[in-house]
Amino acid sequence: MLRALQDLLARLFSPSKSEEPPPPAEDEDEPPPDPDAIAVLPIEDAIDLHGFQPRDIPSVVEEYLHEAHARGFPEVRLIHGRGKGVQRRVVQSILARHPLVESFRDAPATRGGWGATIARLRINR
Question: pLDDT averaged over the chain?
Answer without folding.
Answer: 83
